[in-house]
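Consortium newsletter contribution from the modelling node. Members have asked for a concrete example of what our holo predictions look like. Here is one, prepared for the iron/sulfur cluster complex that several groups have been discussing at recent meetings.
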Amino acid sequence: MQGEAVLYEKVGGKVRCTACRRYCTLADGQIGFCGVRQNMGGAGSTLTSTEGPWLSR
Ligand code: SF4
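And here is the predicted structure:
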């Protein structure tokens, strides 16, 4: 289950995750280093709805 992530910013056509200091910059469909966060159509998304440090909504 996925939820829209809170901790991200749009950079050009990509999304930069700001949830940790890796600051992964993700193209559409790309999954971050952690395997938990993903760029889904230009918006940050978590691959789990579990509440926790990813702050999905
Ligand atoms: S995608 Fe994962 S590893 Fe990359 S910055 Fe976000 S939380 Fe950190």
